[in-house]
Amino acid sequence: MDSPLGELRIVASTRGITGIYMENHSHPPDPEALGQLLDSAADDPLISQCAGELAEYFAGTRTTFGVPLDARGTDFQKRVWEQLARIEFGTSRTYGQLALALGDEKLTRAVGTANGRNPISIIVPCHRVIGADGSLTGYAGGLDAKLFLLRLEGIEPPPEATLF
């Protein structure tokens, strides 16, 4: 689907959405996992629902998603992604806060790695995770996309430090 971020590729199983990938996604799906390429989102009910909900999100009329999800990952990754899904629209969390929510502040780096492998961008809001100092950190769709999504939700990260 077309979006303000460029083309998004939506991938679904029979049970739910398995991925939403941006054009220059740093962790693209294995081509064999993509299945059949459809002519239109309307050709699959889950993809159609997802595309509609994303369009509403980008239009500023949707803050939560109802499309079923079917994320594929390790047990730890799924635990992290469940924590991501609890971050409400318009709010952000740090990697450390997510690690504490999982029961161990020492998991911060592992949380960051799992966050970066989140296959369901936007709906599972990994863009809402920022550095402890409020800085933007890596995002599989690129930092410009992360900044766009944060601003769309009314989250304004602090300005970058400069020398002048």
TrEMBL record:
Family stated for the protein in its record: Belongs to the MGMT family.
Miscellaneous remark of the record: This enzyme catalyzes only one turnover and therefore is not strictly catalytic. According to one definition, an enzyme is a biocatalyst that acts repeatedly and over many reaction cycles.
Occurrences of domain Methylguanine DNA methyltransferase ribonuclease-like (ranges): 1-70
Reaction equation(s) it catalyzes: a 4-O-methyl-thymidine in DNA + L-cysteinyl-[protein] = a thymidine in DNA + S-methyl-L-cysteinyl-[protein]; a 6-O-methyl-2'-deoxyguanosine in DNA + L-cysteinyl-[protein] = S-methyl-L-cysteinyl-[protein] + a 2'-deoxyguanosine in DNA
Methylated-DNA-[protein]-cysteine S-methyltransferase DNA binding domain: residues covered: 75-155
GO biological process: methylation
Signal peptide: none
Keyword field: Cytoplasm, DNA damage, DNA repair, Methyltransferase, Transferase
Classification via InterPro entries: MethylDNA_cys_MeTrfase_AS, MethylDNA_cys_MeTrfase_DNA-bd, MethylDNA_cys_MeTrfase_DNAb, MethylG_MeTrfase_N, MGMT, MGMT_N_sf, WH-like_DNA-bd_sf
EC nos: 2.1.1.63
Domain of life (superkingdom): Bacteria
Localization of this protein: Cytoplasm
Gene3D superfamilies attached to this UniProt entry: Methylated DNA-protein cysteine methyltransferase domain, Winged helix-like DNA-binding domain superfamily/Winged helix DNA-binding domain
Active-site positions on this chain: C126
PROSITE patterns xrefs: MGMT
GO molecular function: methylated-DNA-[protein]-cysteine S-methyltransferase activity
Pfam families: DNA_binding_1 (PF01035), Methyltransf_1N (PF02870)
Coiled coil spans: none
Presence of keyword Metal-binding: no
Function: Involved in the cellular defense against the biological effects of O6-methylguanine (O6-MeG) and O4-methylthymine (O4-MeT) in DNA. Repairs the methylated nucleobase in DNA by stoichiometrically transferring the methyl group to a cysteine residue in the enzyme. This is a suicide reaction: the enzyme is irreversibly inactivated.
Protein name per UniProt: Methylated-DNA--protein-cysteine methyltransferase
Biological source species: Paeniglutamicibacter psychrophenolicus
CDD domains assigned to the protein according to its UniProt record, in alphabetical order: ATase
HAMAP family reported for this sequence: OGT (MF_00772)
